[in-house]
Amino acid sequence: xxxxxxxxxxxxxxxxxxxxxxxxxxxxxxxxxxxxxxxxxxxxxxxxxxxxxxxxxxxxxxxxxxxxxxxxxxxxxxxxxxxxxxxxxxxxxxxxxxxxxxxxxxxxxxxxxxxxxxxxxxxxxxxxxxxxxxxxxxxxxxxxxxxxxxxxxxxxxxxxxxxxxxxxxxxxxxxxxxxxxxxxxxxxxxxx
Length: 192
Fold this sequence. Notes:
This protein has one domain. 14% of the residues lie in helices and 42% in strands. It contains 2 helices and 12 strands; from the N terminus they run ββββββββαββββα. It has helices at residues 100-108, 174-191; strands at 7-11, 13-17, 22-29, 34-38, 41-47, 63-66, 69-81, 87-94, 113-120, 125-129, 132-135, 138-146. It is globular and about 45 Å long. Mean pLDDT is 79; it is low at 153-172.
């Protein structure tokens, strides 16, 4: 692991299980191009399949925060699936403490999505062409629940209230997702 800058990227929840207080989500999609702000300029970015190989919730605790606020811990990652087709999938255990119920409800209603706080390992970044950044080796610092997704192709796949419920199909909104991506890029530009 390296001590390079911490970056943030958002994706969308996959499913919510209220009785177990679990959210299953795509933390970062693979092989999906998106526009992000990187060091003050807008670039296209792709996370390579395998960028999170070897990640495990057993190695160290990876917290779930509200809006990347380290002082507002709302849960922890209990399992990762780095080999899933759609990207790095995580199962998050959400706290019973203050705010946990709101997070579950808002994720279920599509109002909160996942955002990754991550770093690039040595040799984990390539620039195959001007303005295109490919990330190949990443480490995950934390997962945040936030209202602004960065990846327009990471859509909700299923929402589960209790075991046995039927999945709910959610229609993709690519134009709205692009606008949200621009809004998020603008917010990140103002931070730096």
